[in-house]
Structures are given as C-alpha cells and as structure tokens.
Specification:
Elements: E1 5-12, H1 16-27, E2 32-35, E3 51-53, H2 58-62, H3 69-75, H4 82-85, H5 90-97, H6 100-109, E4 114-118, E5 128-131, H7 136-148, E6 152-154, E7 157-165, E8 168-176, E9 179-191, H8 200-207, E10 215-216, H9 224-231, E11 236-237, E12 242-243, E13 246-249, H10 267-275, H11 281-292, H12 301-304, E14 308-310, H13 325-331, E15 338-342, H14 344-349, E16 358-360, E17 364-366, H15 368-374, E18 379-382, H16 384-391, H17 395-405, E19 412-422, E20 424-425, E21 428-429, E22 436-438, E23 444-450, H18 466-488
Parallel strand pairs: 1-2, 1-9, 2-6, 9-23, 10-19
Antiparallel strand pairs: 3-5, 4-5, 7-8, 8-9, 11-21, 12-20, 13-19, 14-15, 15-19, 16-17, 18-19, 22-23
Bound molecules: flavin-adenine dinucleotide (FAD).
Length: about 500
Amino acid sequence: MAVNRTVDAIIVGGGGSGLAAAVSAAEQGCSVLLLEKQPQLGGTTGIAVGSFTANRTAMQQAAGIEDSLEDHAEDAGEFAPDSIEDRNNVALRRWFLSHTAETLDWLRGMGLAFHGPNPEPPNRVPRMHNVVPNAKAYIARLQARLLQLGGEIRCQAAVKELLREDGRVVGVRAWIGDHEEVLRAEHGVVLACGDYANSQELIAEYKGDRFAQIDGINPFAAGDGHRLAQAAGAQLLNMDVTYGPELRFVPPEGKLFFSQLLPASGPIAWLMGRLLPWAPQFVVNAFIRRLLVTWQHPENALFDDGAILLNVKGKRFCDERQWPEREIGIAAQPSKLAYLLLDERLTERYSAWPHFISTAPKIAYAYVDDYLKLRPDIACAGTLQQIADRRRFPMERLQTAVREAGLSGDRWVLLGPCRAYFTTTEGGAAIDQSLRVLDAAGTPISGLFAVGQNGLGGQILWGHGLHIGWALTSGRLVGKTLAGIKSTA
Ligand SMILES: Cc1cc2nc3c(=O)[nH]c(=O)nc-3n(C[C@H](O)[C@H](O)[C@H](O)COP(=O)(O)OP(=O)(O)OC[C@H]3O[C@@H](n4cnc5c(N)ncnc54)[C@H](O)[C@@H]3O)c2cc1C
C-alpha cells in the first residue's frame, strides 16, 4: 500500500471540533492534516448561532456572577426530559463542564469576541456566551490560526476507511478531488465528522423507519464518522436520541442563515466584538430578534391554543398538538412543507407578552409583527381570500379547514413554509477522558479518537450552548492528548 503522506495526526472533519483539534495539536508541535469532505470548512458549526455555555468564566467574574462546577453539572440535567436525561454519561459531562472556562479563554485569546454571559433558564446564573457575530467566526478564526501554525487543510477530501495495523488505527483512505490517497498518522486519527441528523439510514436503523423522512437542518450531516467508528469496532451510545424533530421556519432564500449578512472575520467583526458589550440591551435584543425569525421554531403553545397546519395544497393533515406525529406528518406532505394559520384571536394573542411565536428565553421574543416585518418571505396577513391567493390554496378547501378547526375572523396570518427537522443527534462513539474511542468491552481502540458530535460518549447536551461547548472543548483537549502521545513516543 503506497502511502501518499505521513503526519503526526489526521483530523477527519473541518467543523468546530475538527478545527479545534487541529489547532490545539498544531500549537503543541504536532504536524497536522485536516481532511474536510465538503468544498468548504464549517459543518453544522458554520450554520449555528454560536452560543457557548460555560461556568466560572472570566466574563462571568467580570459581571460579578458567582458560579460553580457542581451547580452547572446539576443545571445541565434540567433540560432534557427524565427519560432522556437518565441515559446521560454523568462523569463525562461533568468532566467536560470542568474544562469549558479554559476553552473560552483559549478562544478569546485567539481574538474571538463574545457577548454575555446571557441567561438561559433553568441555568440558575447566566452562562451562555455568544460569539460575535455568529458561529462562522469560530470557523474563520480557527482556520486562520491553523494555517498560521503550519497545519494543512484539504477540502473535498472524504475519508472512506480507517487503516489498521495489528489492531491499531494508523491512517485513512480518502477520496481527494477525483482520486484516492492513503494517508498515514503516526500518533492518531481523530474522528470529527459531526452528527447524522440527515442520514435516513442511521435514523431508520436506530430511531425507527417512521422518522426516516425527517431531514436534518444540515443536509450534509450524514454520520460518516459514526460508520467509520463502527467499522473499527467502536461502541455507539444513545443512537436513538435526537435533538428534535422540531418544526422550524425555512431560512431566507439564497442566504444560508443570517450569517452571510455579517462578516465573521476582519475589521468589522473585530469592531462589533469590541462594541457589542457596550451596546444598550434593546440594540442587542434587536440583533438577536433577527436570529429568532430565521431558524427558530414556533412555540408548541400556538397549537395548544388552536393554530392549525396546512400543507402546500391548503389541506389540514394532522392533529397539531401531537408531537412527534405532527413532525412525522409534515415530512410526509408534498415537498415536506407546511404553513401555520392563525385567526384573528390568535393573531392578537401572539402579538404581545407573554404569548410569542419564538424565543431565546429571557433574551428576546419574536411576535407576529416581528415576523411580518423581518420575514415578509414567510409571513403574510390579510383576509382569508388574500391568504389563499398568496399561497394558491383552493379557497373552498381553506374554508373547510378553518370551519372544522373552529377558527374565525376578518384578519388572518399565515406563517411558513416550515419543515420538520432534526437539529442534531445525540448518539456518538463511546470515549474515555482522553477522547480515545472505546470498543464494546470498553477498551480503547489504539490510535483512534473522536470529538464533537462524533464522540459524544453518551452525554446528553440539551439546552443552548453545550454542543458547541463540547465540540470546541473536546477538540482542544484531544490536541493535548495527541501531543502527549508524540512526546512519549
Ligand atoms: C441551526 C443550528 C444552530 C445551532 N446553534 C447552536 C448554538 O448556538 N450553540 C450550540 O452549542 N450548538 C448549536 N447547534 C449545534 C452545534 O452547532 C453542533 O452540534 C456542533 O457545532 C457540531 O460540531 P462538530 O464539529 O461535531 O460537527 P460539524 O461542525 O458538523 O463538523 C463536522 C465536519 O465533518 C465533515 N465530514 C463529515 N464526514 C466526513 C468525511 N467522511 N470525511 C471528511 N470530512 C467529513 C463535515 O462535512 C463537517 O464539516 C446548532 C445546530 C444547528 C443545526
């Protein structure tokens, strides 16, 4: 087998966790090759909001907030329902949380700026640090740092197989552009391929066929890393646990999220980072409200209060109060799309506190008018006839739907299209606190590491800011592990 290239460490995946791993390993003197399947870096990290939840941080201290690891470890268990939380790897999540403040210092040391800490109940104190302007900043900054450190990045490089010698993982076989290469790693291969939210196969296998038609928000979240780990004998944990399915409005057309409106690096991003902490709260809220009307999901309370869903033909198709049947139902509709209809009573109700369409709790709330103003592409108001004309619904069918649902009035609001999505998945390779991948017996597979969503190790990371926190922390720490292995080799 002809080897095309040999380095100290190969990192598979150029999202947040892979870039953090590559930078950290390179900082400690390892030669690093990062392979990214897509034409550009970023992964799910690159389309995220960018919240990073951490305890005992310098920013908390500067704001006079007292926090402790024990409190954070306890609060982190309050987000998922008990049936899910009971499956958490308690020791691993506590260990992760104990390293979050150092990771934040590390990122700020690279020039990344954060707003916050912001409250996110049921966290008892503000712990959510929001990178400015959004998560693309992580990618831009880490990429620049990696190149500065002499790390090598290759895009359109899809890893297809892990290479093993005497049970040890020693490299990868990858398709790079239009040809295959064999790449060797002296001290370790790190799987950082993200989640499988858009893998029909893995979702059907572990969660059930009825969920298979529901898409992942990131269409490229295919679970390659989970398959690679599995083929090497890894134990996979919590593979049926998903974040979602949730209903979300489709993002503005032509722009992958709000992110492209603002620079993620360069002088303007730098200036925003410096100015945002001094901006009045209403400016910050206006900024965040924009985020709220893109990917955020409409509150379930809307359906409990009587809002109905229509498919692209104007037909009502499910009991809107039933989760996850509602989401499964949407995925079975033409084009997998649905619209949310509010009558006059609901429109008034969802126009002021405490009834909002979407929220980042205690930070900002978006009401009907926010959608009409900020997302005219997905929100319209008018008579039932105007609504029918706007979306080409047959008027008779629309009238039947509203009559059967008991809705009425002269002014109506239609929001959508929305889709049912898995935001991310919580299943991952079993790992230890050196980020080594474990087999079914709990024994480390020599030479193989996993980070981010690929190497969740049984943790439940619900709530905002823990997934990115884990991706960047596990990446930073695996870099140190690799350097340690190199120094003793
Ligand atoms: C809309 C949205 C908003 C979110 N906002 C937040 C937030 O604010 N805070 C938070 O904590 N979490 C958030 N999350 C979740 C969080 O962003 C992710 O869980 C986290 O960023 C995942 O990082 P990762 O490095 O594990 O994976 P990714 O960032 O997905 O990186 C994986 C990379 O590996 C590459 N890859 C895959 N297979 C291969 C292969 N075979 N060969 C080579 N490369 C491969 C992929 O192309 C990808 O670039 C959000 C998620 C979504 C969808």
